[in-house]
Fold this protein.
Amino acid sequence: MNAPNRSELFVLEDGEKAVEIIEDTKIPNAATIKVVKQDHTLANMLRSQLLATPSVLFAGYKVPHPLQPYFILKIQTDGTITPADVLQQACSKLIGTLTALEAKFKREFSFKDVEGAVVSEDPYGGPSTGGPTWAGGRDYLDF
Amino acid sequence: MQANAELEPSVHIRELKKDRVNFVLENVDLAFANSLRRVMMADLPTVAIDTVEVVSNTTVLPDEFIAHRLGMIPLVSANCDEAIRETRECTCDTACEYCAIPLSLNVACHDSRTLDITSNHLQYDPSVFNPQQESGAEGEELTKRVDNFGHPVGKNDPSLPPVLIAKIRKGQELKVRCLAKRGLAKEHAKWSPCSAVAFEYDPHNKLRHTTYWYETDPRAEWPLSDNAREEEPPRDDEPFDFNAKPQRFYFEVETDGSLGPQEVVMKVSKHPSASCHCAESLEFINM
Ligand SMILES: [Zn+2]
């Protein structure tokens, strides 16, 4: 009854900022980034891309509560680049990978078009037979 | 850190059918492949019946039961991004032709036989819209639609048996007015274009990401998947490589027909969580 509306999981509220960066005052070159209305799909991908960057010392994420639709990403760098910049870099790398992937898929599908257009066998199973006809006689509806 | 970090991803499609695609993805890391899987399942918009007005229901199934079954029927959602807008983003009062597809169903049984009410009985019916209400702001949506956009998948296709909604007998009838709306599977699974996404890597478990329970011999008790034929089996004297990373990811994406397998896969790189929101975050960080 008191569950939040499911669309609140992915729709930004009016004036809500998608990303908020909180600089860490106790650890050098570190920042905590709060990304709202996103889940593991983006968080884990970003974390792994950040870890693949040599200047990143630490990158980790958590979704503090499954009913609260945001995640927190913590980044520490070696000082040659700020956490915000390295995150930006990671994002562009990911977009690059996705674009490359799209091109690869396009190419692969263009080879497959001929085979894919015609499906020889019926993938959904045989056609259904209509309902059985009742043997004559009457039932309670006839009265 | 990763030898393959700079390599471009590579894809090999092993099989493409009307409702499924089987492919192998390489040169990406596990997190990326998994995000791809998650996006295909839950982040691609489709249309599904979302509001149902029951005018008359004398079937044995209660109204809620019927409404739920109607919601689960796959509707043609090709090019859904451009062909329809979210109702919550539309400026109309409740629903209009830009943000909803009107469908109605009116079936009564007059003969002494069991009659199947199926998805084929769903009719496109603009009278479901309230004639007094105004449409939302004008847009391009209507021109981006295929002819049967929002109609049940496989309607008028004799090779596809329709989806059974209810069975009625003589004297029973079902009359409903529905609005199909655009949505994401994150809100309700009925909006998922995929009925199943199979995902596997490391079929020989060389990386030891899983531990097999066994009686005496795990190799005898756990049959290998077909994908194991694509990879070298481990030698018995092979030391465990704790730096190894998964390299090849085996996917099989099966759709419910609302989107074709090709559209599902191609939309991933174009649409939601994946690129869009990365780009959004970029924008915000720049500010
Ligand atoms: Zn509207």
About this structure: Confidence is low (pLDDT under 50) at residues 116-143 of chain A. Residues 6-115 of chain A form a domain with the Gyrase A; domain 2 fold (CATH 3.30.1360.10).
